[in-house]
Write a structure and sequence with these properties.
The protein has 55 residues and is mostly helical. It is 67% helix and 0% strand.
C-alpha cells in the first residue's frame, strides 16, 4: 500500500517537473492525496473498509 502511494505521488511530481515554491509542491501533493482518496473510495463502492478487529 505504501509503495502504491509513493508511486502515485512520484508520478504527480515527475509530470510537473519544476515547482516555483515549496508551497506549490505541498499543494500539489495535497491535491494528489485527496484525489487518491476519492479513487480508493470509489473502488470500494464508497463504503469504508472494516477489518473486523477491535481497536
Amino acid at each position: 500500500m505504501i509503495e502504491s502511494i509513493n508511486y502515485q505521488l512520484r508520478k504527480i511530481t515527475k509530470t510537473r517537473g519544476h515547482f516555483p515554491t515549496d508551497e506549490a509542491l505541498i499543494k500539489l501533493l495535497y491535491l494528489g492525496c485527496k484525489q487518491m482518496g476519492r479513487t480508493a473510495r470509489a473502488g470500494r463502492g464508497g463504503r469504508p473498509t472494516t477489518t473486523g478487529r477491535s481497536p
